[in-house]
Amino acid sequence: MSMQIDSYNAEKQVVEQIREGRDRIEAELSKVIVGQKSVVRELLYCLFAGGHCLITGAPGLAKTLLVRSIARVFDIEFQRIQFTPDLMPADITGTEILQEGGAGQRRMQFVKGPIFANVILADEINRTPPKTQAALLEAMQEHQVTAAGVRYALPEPFFVLATQNPIEMEGTYPLPEAQLDRFMFNVSIDYLPEDEEVAVVLQTTSAESEEIQPLFSGEDVLKFHAVVRKVPVARDLVQYAVRLAAASRPGQEGSPDFINDWVSWGAGLRAGQYLVLGAKARALLEGRSHVDLEDIQTIVRSTLRHRILPGYRAEAEGVTVEAIIDRLLESVKAPGAP
Question: What is the pLDDT of the chain when averaged over all its residues?
Fold first, then answer.
C-alpha cells in the first residue's frame, strides 16, 4: 500500500512540474524567439507526448533556432542534419570502418552518425532522395539503427524534428505517406505580424543577446512521457477522435460526400492515436489532469494536415487541406453536441 502511495505522490509531483514548466519554458524561449506562441506550444505537446514533428514554413522563419532553443531548454543533445541531394543513408546513421589493431590485426568498428543524439533537426528533409529519407524510418519508429546486422539503440529521449520548405518544390522529393505518418504533428509556421517582426529585427541587430538556461533534463522528459500516457480520457472523446480520422477516408461507409469528392487518401489509425496522445499532453500543459473536447479540436489540424491527400478535383477547385479539415470538424458530431 505504501508503495502505491509513494508512486502516486511521485506522479503528482511530475504533474505539478509539467503545469509550472510551460510558462517557464515559454519565458526562456522568449529570450530568442519572438511570437510564434501557438507553434511553440504545439512543439511542446509533441515533445511531451514523445512524438516526432514535421515543421513546414518558408525560409528565414527561425525554424532551426526554435528547435535548437528547445533542445537547450531541456538540456539534451542536439544535432542538425542538412539534407541534400547527395546525402547517403550512412551519412546519417553511421558506417563501419576498418580499424588497425595491435599485432597487425584488423577489425570492423561501427562509427555512429549524427542521428545518435536526443533531438535531431532534419533540415529540408524533402531535398534528399527517398533512399536517404528512409534511413530515418527505423530510427523514428524503433528508436534504433541496424548496421551489418547489429542493432544500436538510440539515446533516450529521441525526437526527430524535420523541416520542409513549401515554396520551392523544384528538385525536391516529397515524403511518402508511410513516412509522413510517422510524424505526430505537421506544424505550420507563418510570417510574423509587423510589430513582432520589428521586435525580431531589433533583437537580432543589437549587441546584446541572452543565453537560454536549461530547465529540465532528459530524465525529466522521460518522466513526462510516462505521466502523459496516464492522463484519463473519456471514451466518448476517444470515439470522437477515431471518427474524425475515419471520416477523412474516401470510399468508406459513412464518409461525407465532400471527402469522396476532394480526398484521394485519408488518415490512418495513427491519426486517432496521436489525437488522443496529443490531447493528453495539452491537458497537462494547460494545467488540467483530464482531457476535454477543446484539447482534441485544438490539435486536429496539426495531426491531420499531413495525413489527408487532396485529389485532383480539390486542387482544380482551389480547396486546401485546411479547408477540408474545417469541413470535417463541422460534419463530425462532437460529444455533447445537440
Answer: 82
